[in-house]
Amino acid sequence: MPTKQKDLSKKLKPLADRVLIKEDADSAEKKTSGGIIIPVTVDEDKGSKRGIVMAVGPGRHEDGKLVAPSVKAGDKVLFQWGDKIKVGEEEYYIVREAEILAVIK
């Protein structure tokens, strides 16, 4: 686990089936060499975002058993919704596992 993820996991630990995601810098606005800004909405679906999983909660309880999340720290994911939070200078999203649409391989 990279140092940044270790430091973050000491400050913030998601509960239940929640996942902490940092939006991928590649999915931000792009600027051409001529200075034209290309917004994210041109390249991608408006309802989803790409990000990297930074921390994962222990899972959800179902029929009295703990069901572990299907993602892990370091996974690249496509997600929607989520609460935006700021830790230090960095911005993250806290989302339920159900809001993660796919793991990007």
Tell me what you see in this structure.
There is one protein chain. The chain has 105 residues and is mainly β. The chain has one domain: 10 Kd Chaperonin, Protein Cpn10, Chain O (Roll). Helix content is 12%, strand content 43%. It is built from two helices and ten strands; from the N terminus they run αβββαβββββββ. It has helices at 3-11, 40-43; strands at residues 18-23, 30-31, 37-38, 49-56, 60-62, 65-67, 76-79, 83-87, 90-96, 100-104. The strands form three sheets. It has a six-stranded antiparallel beta sheet with strand order 8-9-1-4-7-10. A hairpin with a 2-residue loop joins strand 8 and strand 9. It is elongated, with a radius of gyration of 15 Å. The two termini are 18 Å apart. The relative contact order is 0.26. The model has no long low-confidence stretch (mean pLDDT 82).
